[in-house]
Amino acid sequence: MLWTAIFAVALFAAGCSSSQHSTNGQTYTRTANGAVVNVSEDEYHIHMPTAFPAGMVTFHITNNGQHNHNFKIKGMGIEQQLPTDIMPGQTADMTVSLVPGVYDILCPIVGHADLGMRLSVTATQ
Ligand SMILES: [Cu+2]
């Protein structure tokens, strides 16, 4: 039974065309033309990889905190945030086209960035 389960997992991993990458325990999945980047927000941190491939990037953002949060990316001529805040326990996706470069990520809710919800990330070639 156990070995059957392990075999099934191995098959699934081998058959998956994308690949998982981890930076400090936070992950992204490379896609055909970019990446899906997993983001976790709480009071008052943004947990996510600090480097991931440029291209069409979808941020899959989960609010694991007790308060509403949002997500904003700024840099290389773009500035975009979620149209509505994410409530506790909820998720939201935001897709942006990123050229290689350095971007600021922050929670745009007043005061949150100063409390720690801010970091710099790099979209790599
Ligand atoms: Cu916030």
Descriptive overview:
With 125 residues, this protein is mainly β. The protein has a single domain (2-124), classed as Cupredoxins -  blue copper proteins (Immunoglobulin-like, Sandwich), CATH 2.60.40.420. 11% of the residues lie in helices and 50% in strands. The strands form two sheets. Strands 1, 2, 3, 4, 6 and 9 form a six-stranded mixed beta sheet that branches. A five-stranded mixed beta sheet has the order 5-11-10-7-8, with no helix packed on it. The chain is globular and about 35 Å long. The protein starts with a helix and ends with a strand. The site of copper (II) ion has 5 residues, from loops.
Quick recap of the structure?
With 125 residues, this protein is mostly beta strands. It is built from one helix and eleven strands; from the N terminus they run αβββββββββββ. The model is unreliable at 6-17 (pLDDT under 50).
CATH superfamily: Cupredoxins -  blue copper proteins
Backbone shape: globular
Structural classification: mainly beta
CATH architecture: Sandwich
Number of domains: 1
- Strand runs, count: 11
Uncertain runs? 6-17
List the secondary-structure elements in sequence, H or E.
Answer: HEEEEEEEEEEE
> What oligomeric state best describes the polypeptide chains here?
single chain
